[in-house]
């Protein structure tokens, strides 16, 4: 048998190599965009008439253009959360399980959860037939869901309170809410013993048991103490309570950041408000991504978190499995995600940043050649995303990115995040590594925490412009001129800017236990945020009333602190940072930052210098290095004025830990705690 011609073998080998290179490397670029570019070119419609010459046009979601009715409910038959939950009763899924994660995992079937909620609802009616509100002070747990569902079943107003809330604030909320029933744990109840008599509480419903201590006796003498399991053992009510869309569903409480003595402010979220927000959020998803009973929701925030409550509502009314994990620890998130295999999550800024840091710290440990190969693949994936396409199967997906997706369960398809406070670089990493649609959200307590959402197919959203998407189909948005001192107007160039105002059925109009309603102007609610409308109809939140200030440092005379922080956060040298300017006349700027440990480790090795992260403040070269990196990042992001500030006027203070609530550098919502940063910096020279 004649041998094969060597030239033929070589040609065949070269053809195989060429085909492999194409399939593994270029195939991700050969695909068409996931949606037509014109669908993303204009993500909101604009009303033709302004209500005032001093404001921008009215912007609406494309699905509800001017002249049509805003969405108010997911379906005409379901107008309250109570209706939606009762409709789910008909879904007999005894094998369905709701996972609740804490230090140990407790599995509760859907039938058991419904039975417990029904039993507790009857127990609450027996306990206090006239209770107008029930406070729920619990960590993420089955008991929180049971208590919350019981309130919705009985038509009683729920007052959810995060277990991480300072004791003084809990006291203030309980006093202001006039709640007669508190559902909490024995441990948390003990924190309230000193001032329980100053509240209107009549009944404590506890998980766990009180001991024989003096604080426990004080609780018993001031209230009726009953176990939650005892109340759940009662029979279900004979008939369902009647609940109307205008009835309050729950109250969102917040305390003033700048005045600890100020009274808390409770915003009433009606059933109509909650259902409108759900409808607006769900309508933003394509038909292929609808939420069903087969989905698994992983909650990492407090169950009292305003944004998180929306997703808990969505999961409850769709009979999804719910995994509750109250943490900002990315390792804990990855561990439980691997077990629970969630399909959608809501991540607060602190955990999303920590998750990026966790994976990045693993990647930079690759051998140098492999690291360069990985980064080449990463850039290829980002390039595909920025051109509107999801990278299909490729060499990079097979060797790297599939591994990171599997670490968090492998089934995650929707990742909702807090848009304004999550850095663009974090969003880019989450999209590239995990293959999920990362959808930025924006809102406030008065709007059930939802006003805008990024488009499902807009993969460049919140990366190139850091926009938070277009208005939801349940509300409309416009910009109004800011205070003259700030000077933002609808006529600003290149894009209109101003205070963000919103109108729609998701906007709350009542305050709890207050005769003063939420201030509206012809239905418009002005939020404490400043925004900018981009050409594609999306919104960039450029700052808050507390952070947008005058400054001689900026060429425009106006310093958008949060926008500057987002730009500097794109540096690979830092994980978290906070910019501090003492006053408008100051010619100095200070930056509190947590550097990436592996970045400093690699630099120390290269420069043959010593450093220890736990004692980072004792190594001046580290601060100088981070300053150089941030100055270069400022140049790259067109902040030449910062790069031109004398080095001695740029004070960099490094901290050894990421920003967190525990170390005081972050607030519970993930935003920077500027007062703590100022204390670290001290007074700046002028």
Pick out its properties.
single chain; alpha/beta; seven-stranded mixed β-sheet; five-stranded parallel β-sheet; 28 strands; Medium-chain fatty acid-CoA ligase faa2; Rossmann fold; GMP Synthetase, Chain A, domain 3; 34% helix; 686 residues; ligase
Question: Could you characterize the architecture of this molecule?
Answer:
With about 675 residues, the protein is α/β, with parallel strands linked by helices. Among the domains are: about 300 residues, 3-Layer(aba) Sandwich (Rossmann fold), CATH 3.40.50.12780; about 140 residues, GMP Synthetase, Chain A, domain 3 (2-Layer Sandwich). Strands 13-12-14-15-16-17-18 form a 7-stranded mixed beta sheet. A hairpin with a 7-residue loop joins strand 24 and strand 25. About 0% of the residues have low confidence.
CATH homologous group name of one domain: ANL, N-terminal domain
CATH class of one domain: Alpha Beta
Number of helices: 21
Shape: globular
DSSP summary, beta strand count: 28
Helix/strand-derived category reads: alpha/beta
Protein name: Medium-chain fatty acid-CoA ligase faa2
Organism: Coemansia spiralis
Keywords: ATP-binding, Ligase, Nucleotide-binding
InterPro entries: AMP-dep_synth/lig_dom, ANL_N_sf
